[in-house]
Amino acid sequence: MVRNREVYDYAIKLAEERLGLSIYAALAYGSRIAGYASKHSDYDVIIIAENFGEEIKYIYEKIGGNYVSILTVDKAFFEEDIYEAEHGEFVAGRLYTVYHPLINGDYIRKMEIHLKKRTVVEEICGLFDAFDKITYDLVIPVKFFLLSRLRRRMQAYPPVKYSYYKMFYGSNGVRNMEFSLKGFYKALRILAEEGLVEFVSTDSIRVLKEPEICRTGLPGFLRFFKRGVKSYLTHGKSAKVKPAVVLEETISKIRRSIEGMRIPKELSHPETLLGLREGFLSVEYTPLNEVVKSIFGTKASVDKIIRKGVFSELYIIYVSVGGDKYVIIRKSFSPLYTLKWIFIQLWLIDLKRFIITGKRRFINEYIMMRKLYSELGVKCPRPLLLSWPDNALYMEYIHGKRLVDLDPVEEREAIIRLYREWGELIGWIHSRGLYIGDTKPHNVIVKDGEWYIVDLEQAGVGGDRAWDIVEALYYTYLWGSRLSGVGVEELCRSFLEGYLKYGDVDAVAKASSWRYARPFLPLVPLYRIFRIRRMLRKYSSS
Predict the structure, then answer these.
(1) Which of 21, 44, 184, 188 could form an S-S bond across to 30 if both were Cys, CB 3.0 to 4.6 Å?
(2) Residue 462 main-chain phi, psi, to 5 deg
(3) pLDDT tens digits along 451-476
(4) 38 and 176 share a domain?
(5) Which domain holds residue 406?
(6) Which of 355, 374, 396 represents a domain boundary (last residue)?
(7) What strand order describes the sheet that includes 66-74?
(8) What is the DSSP letter of 524?
(9) Cα gap 269→246, rounded to integer Å
(10) What is the CATH number of the domain that holds 512?
């Protein structure tokens, strides 16, 4: 129900008479509709007219003790703002919040859905800007799209903070939130039918593909900066009222915006609503004790932390939860270790491209870990939590033995068998269109007879399969002293025999090239390199 309907009817009649309009649609919005008005609050109306020559204009009229604010806009002008944000969403932005149709409600609701559909697409682009490929793994509550857009509008025009706070977190907040979200649900159902997103629960979605506008439009920050400028320009064009009235309205909004409000975190930082398909996501710097509580519950505490090697980015964390004990790994991706990958890339510049920066390696490790574990069923540590600000990945600790740490005397036959199985696993992964990128034997852990692959920051889709093969073989020779009781060449043969069960014979042939041997010259004796190349040629031609 709209209270004081006669006031709104008066506003419509006033606009018709004063401007000579043909009114197409009209709606009421603002504090009176949202239920947080004081007795002196304005009555806010938008009138959409056909062929309105001035395009946009405010009529600000006092009726009794209250002002009626009538924003009159040309229909084509309004639709430009809905579909393209051509006027900074100065008019269209009112449809993010609570409104009541006065004339032609079907048209207004249709425009609302178009607006919110575009908003979802733009906010998804913003997620790609912020989270890159992790966006595909985000679980995004529908509420995020509304609150993220409101946050952007608050950043562009801070006085609206008061209105949003009172509207969505005041006495009628639940009702108003439900109203505003209905349009987003409808928009998302349309986008789901178009294949852009899918619902993973009744109130959350995930992204299935990157919208084209993300790659062809302006970067997000420029898009919204430009939009903010347009909004102010449109406001200036529309506000043809007495300066005293404008001053009174502005002072009122500023005064209300700086009142003692404690903005809820979901509105000031809506990204805290985001989740992950696997594990938790932390978008703020979080103390370690709080991290383990996020993973294991409020009773969890840290017993001790051990750094795995002086120059390692790995930390082993021992956790207690009541009487239970757990061990997890924290892997950091600091800028310091970027230097290592820069040197490696320079050394292999003509052969292979590596992922260099800490953030990119951090993102890639999580994606490939989840892809191998969840989609292919390959054993690897499960991601537990991503700490986004400091590029830290918390994961399971695998209680097993690295392949190179098995006893070459007591476990000779087992090592040969395991090398064959390792080759089979790499070949099977290759047959599924993936590669590991770092197949050193110490990145393979055996636990209870099962394989676990660790260190996936260089893994990916497609890629150079030959590199996986040569790295496994040459590093087997490099650490051959640990396996002296077995016979390194026998291990390499076992690996290749296992690999060719599922793998690509052309990749084996490619691996025999001298180009793939050159990077290992400082590490592996020349006579061993010749043996490996001869072995690769033999298995690729058999």
Answers:
(1) 44
(2) 75, -115
(3) 899 999 999 998 889 999 999 999 88
(4) yes
(5) 401-541
(6) 396
(7) 56-63, 66-74, 43-50, 22-29, 99-103
(8) S
(9) 31
(10) 1.10.510.10
DSSP character at residue 74: E
CB 395 within 8 A of CB 469: no
Question: Is the CB of residue 224 less than 8 Å from the CB of residue 156?
Answer: yes
- The rounded Cα 538 to chain-centroid distance in angstroms is 46
Two structure tokens written together for 61: 């009229």
Block residue for tokens 């093969």: 469
* One domain for residues 344 and 385: yes
Q: Are residues 316 and 270 in the same domain?
A: no
- Asked if 130 contacts 203 with a C-beta cutoff of 8 angstroms, the reply is no
**Same domain for 251 and 159?**
yes
Give the length of the chain: 542
**What count of other Cβ atoms lies within 10 Å of the Cβ of residue 214?**
19
CA neighbor of 380 nearest in space, from 390, 391, 372, 392: 372
pLDDT tens-digit readout, 120-140: 999 999 999 999 999 999 999
What does the block give as tokens for 306?
A: 């051990």
Alpha-carbon torsion angle 458, 462, 464, 470, nearest 10: 80
- Measure the CA angle with vertex 477, ends 366 and 316; round to 5°: 35
Contact 18, 53 (CB under 8 A): no
Report the predicted TM-score, pTM, of the whole model to 2 decimal places: 0.86
Among all chains, which residue has been given the structure tokens 């060719």? 500
